[in-house]
Request: fold
Amino acid sequence: MSVRLPVDAAAALPVDAAVTALLTWEYEPANPRMLALYEQAKAGQWNASTDIAWETPVPFGEPLGDDSAFVTEAFEMSSLGRFGRPFWDVFRWEFQSWMVSQFLHGEQGALVATARLVEVLPTVEGKLHAAGQVVDEARHLEAFSRYLREHVPEPYPISSPLADLLGDTLSDARWDVAALGMQVIVEGIAMAAFRLADSSFHDDLIRQIARMVARDEARHVAFGVIALEGLYDEMTSAERAEREEFVLEAADLMRRRFLLEDVWDRLGVARSEGVEFALSNPMMTQYRQTVFAKVVSTLRRIGLLSSSVTDGLAAMGLLGGAAGRLAGRLG
Reply:
């Protein structure tokens, strides 16, 4: 069990886990796909200090250009429309600040989780790639923390749902659950969000950082797929059911995270009204479905997109577009 402190009062999140490190003497790689991914990781390294244009200005808080007609109309017709266009610009900057803050906290979680995988993965090529990912996560943490430190007046603490998911993932001694929580859920959602940066973020510096990080995240998700592919076919029905329950609990936590309670508090909007907006606004619904689509496709590839998982994700409103069509085929 993880030990959690109240998120708004904690300077750290202690997590207890009984983990058995595994050393293997089989040095001949058995998985050429994993080894090829490790070679890609070595070739794809970049330096957060020198490869990012840190001199790019960030006009945080300044008025923004128009959104699409769909987004503008969705806001104006919502209950928040009464606050007017200036409020919408403030919200858009706060959403970016909140997102980048959660990226930062998630990257630290990924750093710790991947270091755990170095200890517990059963193959040498898996350990090699996990070690390379540790370096990636350290670089991401460096980049996001510098951006927030230099350009965002008041970054956000970790959201309670994300802290809960990191605690659940890191407190589980089973290596595949750590990979499932981090490589599939957290990294999958993050990769999708990074790829939406050009349309959802508002300055060129964070867009550049997101593009650089997205290249790494694509490898990380692929690492999770290669490591987990075929594993669940060999498990008992009870073992699979435990993993499916973990997936649905993790998805629900990430869905709750996108209700943006922390943002509404800062903006002075009643939580109930803000949460209702996040739940019902077409733009917000579409965003959640879009960032979860990668998770859905990854679950299918590793053999965990059962009918019960599909039904659970649908009940949470997380299936739409391609994901919804996939669910329809499964149903």
Q: What stands out?
A: Residues 1-9, 322-331 have pLDDT under 50 and may be disordered.
